[in-house]
Every structure is written in C-alpha cells, then in structure tokens.
Amino acid sequence: MDTAVVLAAEESHNPLLPVWSEVILALIVFAIIFFIVKKYVAPSFEKTFAARTEAIEGGLAAAETKQAEADAKLAELEQQLADARHEAARIREEAREQGAAIVSEMRQQAQAESTRIVDAGKAQIEAERQQAVTSLRAEVGNLATGLAGRIVGESLEDDARQSRVVERFLAELETAEASDAAGKDA
Amino acid sequence: MSLTASIAASAVTAADDSGFHAPGPGSFELPAVFEVAGFGVTKPMLLLVLSAVVVIWFGIASSRSTSLVPGRLQYVGESSYGFIRNSIGRDNIGSEHFVKFVPYLFTLFAFILVNNYFGLIPFVQYPTMSRIGFVAPLAIISWLVFIGSGIWKHGPLGYLKHATMPSGIKGPILIVLVPLEFFSNIVVRPFTLSLRLFGNMFAGHLLLILFATGGAALIVSGNIFYGGVGVLAFVMGIGISFLEMLVMFLQAYVFTLLSAMYIGEALADEH
Description:
The structure holds two protein chains of two kinds. Chain A is mainly alpha-helical. Chain A has helices spanning about 1-10, 20-155, 160-185. Chain A has one domain (about 20-185). The longest helix of chain A is centred in the middle third of the chain and has 134 residues, at about 20-155. By secondary structure, chain B is mainly alpha-helical. Chains A and B meet through helix 1 and helix 2 of A and helix 1, helix 2, helix 3, helix 4 and helix 5 of B.
C-alpha cells in the first residue's frame, strides 16, 4: 500500500514539470562529461587532426620539393647531353678538317717527293751521260791515237788497205758521233 | 486514489491479468530502485550516470591513440568528433570561433544520443531524455552559451540590438517586430529546445509501450481475433522501434545543430 501511495503521488506529477533532483543530477553529470571532453578528448582529437593535416601537407611539400629537384636535375642532364652532342659534333668537324688538311699536306709532300725523285733521276741520267760522253771522248781520243799509231806504224803497203783503214775509222767515228748525238738527244 | 494507484501500477508492470490499462505519463514514473539517506534513486538517474560512463569511456578510449593511421575505435571516435566539429560546429558557427564550442557540442551530442538509445537497448528500455528534468538543464545551458557568446561578441546592448532588430528594417514596424524577435530569439528557444527532445522521446516511448503492452493484452485475451491483432501490434511495435532509432539519432542531432546555429547567429557580424 505504501508503494501504491508513492506511485499515486508520482503519477499525478505533470511530466512537463521537472523534478529538481533530476535537474541537479543532469547538471552535475553533464559538467563532468564536459570537463573530461574539454580536458582530454577534444585536445587529443584536435592534436591528431592537426598532426594528420601537417603530415599530409608536409608530405605534399616534400613531394613538390623532390619534384622540383628532379625537374632541375633532368634539365641539367639534358643541358649536359646537348652540350656533349654539340661538343661531339664540333670534335668530329675538327677531325674532318684536320684529316682533310693532313691528306692535302700528304699529297703535297708526295708531289714534292715525286718531283724530287724525278729531278734526281734526270740529274743522274745527265751526269751519267756526261760521264759517258767524257769517257767516249777519251776513248775516241785513244782510238784516234791508236788508229793513228797503227796507221803510222803500219807500212803503207798498199793504197787499198790504207783507204780501208781510213774508211773504217771514219765509220767508227760516225757511229760514235751518232750514238753521241743520240745520247745527247735522250 | 486507489484507482489511480492501480492504473499506475498496471502501466508500470505492463498489462496484468485484471484487464488492460493504457500507458500514460505514469509509465514514466518508476519507483526508486534504492534509497540513499532518504533520497530515492530512480532508474533514469542510474541510466544518466551510466550514460556518462559510456560517453567518457568512449571519448577517452577513442582519443587515447593519436596515431595518424587510426585503428577501428579511433576511427569511429574521430569520425563522430569530426562530424560534430566540421558539419555542425564549423558550418554553423564559422571557422573563426567554432573550435571553442566543439567540446560543448560533442558532449551535448554524445550525451543526448546515448541517453536516447537507452530507450531501445534491451532490459534498459528507458529513454532518459523523456524526463524533462534531464532535458531542461541542457536547453538552459545552450541558452546561456549562445546568449553569453552574443554578449561577448557584441556587448550586452549590442547583442540585444543584434538579436531583436533585423537589419535593414526601419520605421514604426519595429515597434511590432522588436518584441516579436525578442520573444522568438531569446525567450522561447530554451522551451522549444527542451520540448522538442522531451516530446519526441516521451511520445516514442509511450508508443512502444502501447504496442508492447497492448499487443500482449490482446494476445492473452483468449479471443482469436484479438490475438491476431495483438500479433500485428507486436509487428508494428518492431517497425516503430526502427523508426525510433532514427528519431533518437535525429533528436540528438537537431538539439546539437540548433545549439550550434544559435551560437553562430549570436556570433555573426551585423547582417
């Protein structure tokens, strides 16, 4: 019956009117939760959010730096490559010019050498001809002397033999002269 | 007297054999579970404390790890905190001042949400926020917070002008408009805040009790047709339970959202 009375008293309570003990309890409980959320939960979440944002932004910045570095490196390498190609072309051109110069120089040298050899040959031939003429002269002299000696030494037995000797000598002389002239022509 | 007592008792213990009595406001008046120095501690009071334990545990446990790649609990905590922070706080208060209010909004949302869902958890089944004694303080705190931030931003008179005089309106119309604005922006807000939450929880729970106790009374009535209707009532009750799940979330969301909007409005520059 006691319970029934209590229930009856509460049943007559208007649900729109707050029970003050409940109001106070709600305030206390809410204050405790709020305090803990404010002190521990929210700062922790905010810290995590901030750290994550920073990590993402930092990562992006680092990636951008890396990208820029890579671009710079690539440009530098391309520049170097272009330089190297240019250099190679220049060296090739130079080599070609040098080669051409060497070839023409060699040709000139060969020309000069051949001219020199031909001149030397001519000079030698001339010298030998001179020598031949000189020795021929000497020989002709000897021959003439010999012949004269023979003519003189031999008794003029007959006219016929005498004339033969002279003719032979002349013929010899002529041949010598002819060969001499031929040698001179050559 | 004895009649009302028996109505109350039957409503509390569901339908008894002596006949069905519709649930009413008395269904929310539970006897004290135990007494401490003559002060009766009731089930909703215990539930309120339990909700505090749940909210604090969740808050601490989910925010303890601050790793950049969150675990499951940390992810849930961050998502809910981020939802309150960005969708409710920043979007309504503005990015300049909102951070200061996020702990309050988060506490408000979590506290109301857990207490609402107590209405559907088996064996608990009591939405704590159907007691206006628990709702009214929250509404009054929100009221104090938004009025306080308005005064902090504009000064007492400046805020009064900010709240009651719509900009761009001049002339005698103000004589009508200012009291109206004062009434709607300052006076009724704590009442609408608390009544909305209280009314939804109260009515929803009443509906669930009605379907459950009514269904049970119909099934045990012995009449086969009544029994069929009773089964239907249970099915409806299950459907209403799912609807209540939505309503419980929505009411927690709306209470928090409106608090944030009021704060944002109070902090707004002259518009």
